[in-house]
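Me: I keep going back and forth on a fold encoding question. No explanation is needed for now; the record alone will do.

Assistant:
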Amino acid sequence: MKKLLSFILVIGLGVLIILGLNNTIQFPAFGHASVSDRVSERYITKGSDVDIIFGVTQDPESGAANIVTSIVVDYRSFDTLGEVTVLFISALGVALLLGSAVTQKRLELDFKPNFMLRVGSRALFGIIIMTGVYVTLHGHLTPGGGFPGGTMIASAMLLLYLADDQFRARIKGFKVLEGVAGSFYVIIGLLGLILATYFLQNFLPNGTVGDLISSGIVPIVYILIGLKVGSEISGMIDNFLTEEEEVK
């Protein structure tokens, strides 16, 4: 039964690929798109751009004050999903190579962290975490977003691992968080397909450009990316700084 289902799935994917390459109605020519159909007529009229004023303009095209975010998490959000998938595959490879042992212990460091280093690292931990959260939440307003915010959160975990040779995070929680964040990313994309027109299309109001609660699904997607990136990199850090425990 499994072989039959696998065969049907492969055939189905093959048909989709052939249709895509054949330039049918369901799959238009790759790269061909009418920009005018994707840009709101409210802000482009007869070829002249209408100024968008920070903190004043209501419901702009993407709602993001950061143009990089508008491109990465709005117009190219499907590509961003692929980038997150690449990171997941990398984390999975590290886990399979280094984290396959049933019982593991912390890797012994060449130096013994002293009391001041341990206490100081825990004080910095909260500051780094809050900075990462801020960068993630404000990615649609200022330079930043889920990727840098997630790596900041993971760097805080790395700091604790290096400053305390007895510290080890609960990796199972990170695995659950990574899976939930990635699943919600795909679910939001499917909601865009159902409630709007295409996968990952914005289906929420954009609000006022410059406000924290604005840009539709963009900040939600960035939060999910931040959680996914932070949890995946934290898991990789644990895999690199642990070793198989010898059974006596």
Notes: The longest helix spans residues 171-195. The chain has a mean pLDDT of 82. The longest strand covers residues 104-106. The CA atoms of residues 100 and 244 lie 9 Å apart.
